């Protein structure tokens, strides 16, 4: 597995080794021991899967408060997404900065979204399925979000008028969001 660092510390892309031939392909999408060799020691406790039936579905920007925060390992099973991660750790040198990467069934890349970062995806193709592992159980009372088109963030989404849930359309901007993550150097 190849590890690719991003400009946001702790946000990592993973490229699996893919063995392909005339029949298709085989890959290990998750091997705890190989991640540990890369210094990644997460204890994933739950898998989540989503399906978006049309392009332009935007889910996010989501996070859970620190008491029940989740690290996520995200990959696309079918289709493609534009995946966005935003640093929401108060005091961080990269607070409010974001990265956007394409994850697809073709490139087979995965992204690690650590605690202290908000996450969102926008589908680029029909019938896109995501699978992501989390290291903490979902807690509705700790669930929070940031407005997808917050002018402070200026995220360059691939659509101007996405398909949103009522929840995501009504999220607050970053400046008004309830955030309890505090940056600590070295973590």
Tally of helical segments: 2
The largest beta-sheet arranges its strands as: 1-2-10-7-12-5
Radius of gyration: 16 Å
CATH architecture assignment: Sandwich
**Which structural class best describes the helix and strand composition?**
mainly beta
Number of strands: 13
> Strand percentage, roughly?
35-45%
Tell me the domain tally. 1
> Would you give the CATH topology?
Jelly Rolls
Mean pLDDT: 96
Pfam families: dTDP_sugar_isom
Pathway: Carbohydrate biosynthesis; dTDP-L-rhamnose biosynthesis
InterPro entries: RmlC-like, RmlC-like_jellyroll, RmlC_Cupin_sf
Subunit structure: Homodimer.
Supply database-style keywords.
187 residues, Jelly Rolls, 2 helices, 5% helix, globular, RmlC_Cupin_sf, isomerase
Give an overview in words.
With 187 residues, the chain is mainly beta. It has one domain (43-176): Sandwich (Jelly Rolls), CATH 2.60.120. The protein has 2 helices and 13 strands, in the order ββββαβββββββββα. It has helices at 32-37, 166-169; strands at 2-5, 12-15, 18-21, 24-27, 46-52, 58-64, 72-78, 80-87, 98-104, 110-113, 117-123, 128-134, 143-145. The strands form 3 sheets. Strands 1-2-10-7-12-5 form a 6-stranded antiparallel β-sheet, with no helix packed on it. The chain has a 5-stranded antiparallel β-sheet with strand order 9-8-11-6-13, with no helix packed on it. A hairpin with a 6-residue loop joins strand 1 (2-5) and strand 2 (12-15). It starts with a strand and ends in an 18-residue tail after the last helix. The model has no long low-confidence stretch (mean pLDDT 96). It catalyses: dTDP-4-dehydro-6-deoxy-alpha-D-glucose = dTDP-4-dehydro-beta-L-rhamnose. It is an enzyme of class 5 (isomerase). GO terms for molecular function: dTDP-4-dehydrorhamnose 3,5-epimerase activity. This is dTDP-4-dehydrorhamnose 3,5-epimerase. Pathway: Carbohydrate biosynthesis; dTDP-L-rhamnose biosynthesis.
